[in-house]
Amino acid sequence: MQRVRYYWDYLGLDEVLAAQRLASSEDGGDPAHDELLFIVTHQAFELWFKQILWELDAVIGTLSQAPVDERDMGQVLHRLERINEIQPLLVQQFAVLETMTPLDFLDFRDQLIPASGFQSLQFRLIENRLGLDPAKRMKIQGSHYTSRLSREHAARVEASESEPTLLGALDAWLARTPFLRFGAFDFWAAYRDAVTTMIERDRQIVATNANLDEVSRQQQLDAFETTVETFATLFDRERWEQLRAQGRRRLSHEAFLAALLISLYRDEPAFHTPHRMLRTLVDLDIGFHAFRNAHAQLVHRTIGGRIGTGGTAGHEYLEAAARRHRVFTDLFDLATYSVPRDELPELPDDVRDQLRFRFQPS
Amino acid sequence: MQRVRYYWDYLGLDEVLAAQRLASSEDGGDPAHDELLFIVTHQAFELWFKQILWELDAVIGTLSQAPVDERDMGQVLHRLERINEIQPLLVQQFAVLETMTPLDFLDFRDQLIPASGFQSLQFRLIENRLGLDPAKRMKIQGSHYTSRLSREHAARVEASESEPTLLGALDAWLARTPFLRFGAFDFWAAYRDAVTTMIERDRQIVATNANLDEVSRQQQLDAFETTVETFATLFDRERWEQLRAQGRRRLSHEAFLAALLISLYRDEPAFHTPHRMLRTLVDLDIGFHAFRNAHAQLVHRTIGGRIGTGGTAGHEYLEAAARRHRVFTDLFDLATYSVPRDELPELPDDVRDQLRFRFQPS
Amino acid sequence: MQRVRYYWDYLGLDEVLAAQRLASSEDGGDPAHDELLFIVTHQAFELWFKQILWELDAVIGTLSQAPVDERDMGQVLHRLERINEIQPLLVQQFAVLETMTPLDFLDFRDQLIPASGFQSLQFRLIENRLGLDPAKRMKIQGSHYTSRLSREHAARVEASESEPTLLGALDAWLARTPFLRFGAFDFWAAYRDAVTTMIERDRQIVATNANLDEVSRQQQLDAFETTVETFATLFDRERWEQLRAQGRRRLSHEAFLAALLISLYRDEPAFHTPHRMLRTLVDLDIGFHAFRNAHAQLVHRTIGGRIGTGGTAGHEYLEAAARRHRVFTDLFDLATYSVPRDELPELPDDVRDQLRFRFQPS
Amino acid sequence: MQRVRYYWDYLGLDEVLAAQRLASSEDGGDPAHDELLFIVTHQAFELWFKQILWELDAVIGTLSQAPVDERDMGQVLHRLERINEIQPLLVQQFAVLETMTPLDFLDFRDQLIPASGFQSLQFRLIENRLGLDPAKRMKIQGSHYTSRLSREHAARVEASESEPTLLGALDAWLARTPFLRFGAFDFWAAYRDAVTTMIERDRQIVATNANLDEVSRQQQLDAFETTVETFATLFDRERWEQLRAQGRRRLSHEAFLAALLISLYRDEPAFHTPHRMLRTLVDLDIGFHAFRNAHAQLVHRTIGGRIGTGGTAGHEYLEAAARRHRVFTDLFDLATYSVPRDELPELPDDVRDQLRFRFQPS
């Protein structure tokens, strides 16, 4: 017999739409009107978290192949962009939830205790899948970040710390770039000259800026030395890896150089898609930053300076997490190492040739 | 024993996150990657539809009391605004779904047939709860709009046609406004004079506009007569109700006059909240219009000119529905009847006094 | 002497911020508070229109080279995406302007007459630069669309009708694609078979859909014949060009086939950027559609059914223009011609090879 | 002779559209393509800043009357909401500007030096008009925040520090609320009991939360004492004003109590509009926070860790300013003092009666 597909059944709406069980009316009391909004919003978050995990797993899977078929890079980019399209949705969901005023929330808040958003298994998995450094994790009231989870969920989250990550897969893919070694052409020496010129020009700006008093000029010149130091690590694998060991860099030295190359020569056809991918990863970081900030803001407005239902310090914790829980900080820093187009060393013809398509445009 | 509330259980995530069953892998095949997105997006739609129905029911309930306690009007407005905050979310969900390209969709589209978004029970209920005129309903391929629904769902939707609607509750609330009759002061006569002055000025614009050639001037002057006719119905309950019987007006004559009064004298304290409510209802109409347009656009991009999985004509149907399925068109028309502030008849002191708070501002 | 650049002077703020001259206070009267918003919003529109024209000119310039260096395609895409990023800004500007209520507008509206948004020189130039078909232009009250412009502006707009357009440049670029002729491999025959199979399956859906009564089934089967006809034109240059002469197609036959090829085989590296470009052009069309709709909606809310300051029929004109003034309709239709991935004819190895980069991924 | 108003002239487009003078082509060189975007975006910012100042001045003017006619409060709210509608526009403008990649910016960046966004006169005026505490101002590289401005602009900004502010006008308006003294009814004693009950319940949550280990429990209980202290200041004008002298509170004791009253009893008709106004002020703070964050993010992406054109430390400065430059922090804290609806002391009938309209709903 032929199966007749029906919208309601296909979408499992019997289960999905029965899963809003208001705690406020559990013991026979009147439901708190706004509790439905609270539940629906969180369920929608979790649906989208599932989708994000699905895309992350697919992308990590593709990037982990060696070599990655260039044909697949369009899809990798496309799926990362999809996550980026989901992110404003999550922020807007907080805007909807903000229509619940403090008084509305107090109508059912006590019944949620000690449940809390800190217990979102899937969000923790997303963070780990992206490649969040466990050492940068905020503690929750002095306890481990999995301490609020059920034993089973805590185990899954902890296991995920050692599973493949997007950052790791990206690193491996970048480090394999065949363009880091350019035969006879010493690209990096030429680039280093260009950077040095540019830094010197920046230093001149400080030295001659008529708007600066002497104290602040000296402060800036001192700060400048730090910048020069930072640049130096770019050409010194050992110092780079030291910074990495300290958690101040996440990408390997080779991967970072590859990312820099892609960023500088993004006009070459072979770098069009990779360059977009690097920008999209920055967008992803910004997107989760915006999500955490929106959460912090909601908590601030809704409970003010009170403690959260999970016994946490509320919005300040969330704001701090927004600042610390970034993954692709190295990619933000690519801008630091840009040089103006007309000062970029020109690629040798044979290298540039390799970065084109096989066909001739007509 | 104390119940320990846990996020996962409270939100019913066991059920919600198990309800994504991919048709593409039902018979043991590989899942189509994008089918999860398709399912998650539609489930999120249905969650928000449930929330919208919840708010609509509450608002209709409050507005249906006689009299409505003015204390409750803040909440009525607040809940309508919440729906309006949900609407951009729905539009953005289509933007996410648009990341599914035609080829991605074809990977599993055939397996959905004949399921279709036309089978969304909850969306049909929302339309009826708002007060969509059944006579304005688009047919689906010549059949009744409930013809794609299961027997049970069709029955629920049809029953909802005779249940209380937001439009109806609004009408009743407006018609009860105590300010329509102003004792000795003949407000409407004074207002009619003001309108007449304004119309005459508009006619002069046409008559003397140097940019118009004679043909288009005459066209416009003819069109003007229609406007004058329309104005006339405002002061003639019988003709108004004729238009209403033809479906060209939805609000009763008294309700419309009350809405107009609120709109013209919105600066009076007693009209602050009602005036916002009227504007929010227009926003709601626009919000659902945007939702339907976003749907049409998604369909256009994803299946082009092909027929939909439910056997419908696709995006053209949806665009036509966006244009026709409006509910609060009368409120848009309030602008037609505005007159400049300095030509508005002044309210008599005793009327104006009634529209203030009892306390004296200090 | 060294020039010291100052923010205010660099941005010409002396001129820009002095250019808000309120008509309402021109003759010494009190300014209408909301007139500043009206002016500022329109000036911001015109600033962004200038930016859009700047990007369009650059893109048309690049695409008009023969051949286009593939290195430049990243930039072409990037600039089109920038326009697409500007579009939501324009829509949001209408949302800001909607905070001006009908009464607020009436405070100064009469003084604007007969000035009107129809007189935006730059928006008309944008439409023509995109490639809007002059034959599809809405008349304004029976007059030519330039009839409201000053003589000088009308001349510039009319001249722009014969200047290079984005549509034209795209067509030329697509038509030069070297992949339309595949040596011995008869791609189009294989593709035609695949399409025929798919159409037949769609017909079966209609023929066997248990939800359809006989009348609507027959209607749909008839409609189906039209679809088959449409498909047929794809393989028949002559009939295609007939449709084009009637304005029902805009792209040349060759250009459309190239776009279809890119769309079907977008996974090939050489098609990554072109495929994004085609999707972005659809986004652009949608973006201007949204802009026009937002304008229509603003007018509807602000003046209702009254005539506009320029003597036009108001929101209905604008809604109709939103529907008619589309440029890249052919690209929407690409979805119509998609076939599932596993039914796509496989590209011969030598063709596929040409679509890759010269380097080998490692 | 009759003046014929023309769109282009009315909007001053001759001046506005001639004010984009590219520094990159000043000396006859090729223009840097992206410099136009840079200029247009900043000019659009300044147009909107002018509009925001216009609205702020109007609102401060109205709120500074004593008494404020309740009729005017609708307009006050409306104008604040308009600013709030402009804010997402400003954020989206940064998104447009982010399409300028680091390389694109370097094409003309050096020519801007030492001009900088820190020199936006109008943004500084906005901050002061809102009521930003001068003591909380970030220094710019150790110098006063006006040090980058021209002498004339610096003088205007410094003068604005002593002009009326929105915060000040709000404070005065709140402090005049006639509802703070309720005759015989000792509202604050009853409220204090309710708060004490609620705090004690929160303390129990901490004391009995099975998820807490002993160390973090003790931490939280200690933190709790701080909360209790904070609550205590609410009922002790002297300690409140001490906090205020330290900059930890901005509103006067009386104004804060009035705001709290409005917030707790927002359902009363007389509080509908004031309650919205308080929420909108929080939205405004959040909106400027989002603006500063978007700016920081743009700078981070575009120049990385380099110094800004104005010789500043770049994105870190901006992020810190986003956190510190808040004005309405007291209003965020209202949530801290909420109590559940069913524990709120009931208002005595005579008080409640004063908060209603004079007319009887029918």
Automatic annotation (TrEMBL), chains A, B, C, D:
GO process annotations (BP): L-tryptophan catabolic process to acetyl-CoA; L-tryptophan catabolic process to kynurenine
Binding site for heme: H295
Domain of life: Bacteria
This protein's UniProt keywords: Dioxygenase, Heme, Iron, Metal-binding, Oxidoreductase, Tryptophan catabolism
Binding of substrate, residues: F38, I39, V40, T41, H42, R109, T309
Gene expressing this chain: kynA
Protein name: Tryptophan 2,3-dioxygenase
GO MF annotation, one: metal ion binding
Function: Heme-dependent dioxygenase that catalyzes the oxidative cleavage of the L-tryptophan (L-Trp) pyrrole ring and converts L-tryptophan to N-formyl-L-kynurenine. Catalyzes the oxidative cleavage of the indole moiety.
Recorded catalytic activity of this chain's protein: L-tryptophan + O2 = N-formyl-L-kynurenine
UniProt keyword annotation of Metal-binding present: yes
Pathway(s) of this molecule: Amino-acid degradation; L-tryptophan degradation via kynurenine pathway; L-kynurenine from L-tryptophan: step 1/2
Record flagged with keyword Manganese: no
Listed cofactors: heme
Record text on cofactor binding: Binds 1 heme group per subunit.
Subunit architecture: Homotetramer.
SUPFAM superfamilies on file: Indolic compounds 2,3-dioxygenase-like (SSF140959)
Protein family: Belongs to the tryptophan 2,3-dioxygenase family.
Assigned EC number: 1.13.11.11
